[in-house]
Amino acid sequence: MKVFRALFVSLRLWLLLLGFVLAFVVAYAFPLLFPVLQIAFVVLLLLLLIEGFLLFRQNTVGSQPVFFARRELPERLSNGDDNPVTLYLESRYPFATPVEIIDEIPVQFQRRDVLFTAQLTPNQARAIRYELRPTRRGEYSFGAINVFVMTPLRLLKRRFQFETGQMVPVYPSFLQMRQYELLAVSNRLTELGIKRIRRVGHSMEFEQIRPYTQGDDLRSINWKATARRADVGQAGLIVNAYQDERSQGVYCLIDKGRVMQSPFGGLTLLDYAINASLVLSNIALMKQDRAGLITFSERIGQVVPAERRPGHMQKLLEVLYRQKTRFLETDFEALYTTVRTQVRQRSLLLLFTNFETLNGLQRQLPYLRRLAKDHLLLVIFFDNTELRSLLDTPAANTEGVYMKTIAEKFAYEKRQIVKELQQYGIASILTAPQDLTANTVNKYLELKARGMI
Question: What range(s) does the DUF58 domain occupy (predicted)?
């Protein structure tokens, strides 16, 4: 029974059998063809027997299996990124083996094209690499690796199955976080759209005095230290060196209400906010600030106090991994109460939410103004890229004109929201979802350079 379960017929054999059927039909009109077809059919049956014998005659070679395959996955996948998956194949058949590989990937991907073909020579090992891009956090279950091995005739297939039931969690985009971290260390953040911020004034902490170098701000010259240096016979100017103010609180406030469920590019707005919060928290820790997190919807979710302890980044990652959208109206009053009781020191609050209309903002504006009174509040909401593409497309008919008019009204409302926030001294970012991380990090570095936090 195991042999029959592992035995499959190739498309080439089905076509040959169909050809024999048609040839036997034609042989009724031409009887001389009958003996030839009978001999050919017997030869085909012999070839099938030989091929089946070659495929199934042995399961092992010595102590090793005749064919082996395994899947190599990361311990966890990064949401919204291309994650590598590697299939390793090894054949110990004494002849060249064409193979077809079907990898049973998780149902969340909804893909039916994970089929690969290869040809292995005797005792050859080969690796096949492909990528998967998850768009939802959670647990993903991989099925079996189905390998169909053939002989050079390619009439029959023997199926091998490996790696059944492998579960991998999908976390927020830690690959993006590492990318920003590496480029920040090497001062190459501009490659990801991060601007270089010119520092204004000296609203930073004093670090040390050092010799003047070309390009230093002349206003930072320490004339008293320069004079003392001259008294001992040493020439040259001395300047004061400053460093960024450290240990400032940076909180990401993530709205989990229904407004954050809208999908763009396969990810929801909540996932974009979670990925950006992860990157920003890591950058803040690298800048010696303290990173915290508050999630909320119709009630307060998780509250992670701002800290810089070892392992704090892993704690934030685990909390963000478990966040899910809730579909009730967001309660900004509960957010204000929580911030007032939990965040005692003046901090930077980055509020990830979405306002579609000016009325929607005005209902929550009293709570935003109270937050901005005690903290530096930055409201981050999203531009509708689908509306933008509609506005950029010329109208072809009357219906198109109406659609563009409605789209322009919504785009105008977004711009009015920015102006309304500016009127009350609240900073804001209106960004496309795919540009969220770069724009948020830019704004954080700008606020820090200006000494506003």
Answer: 208-384
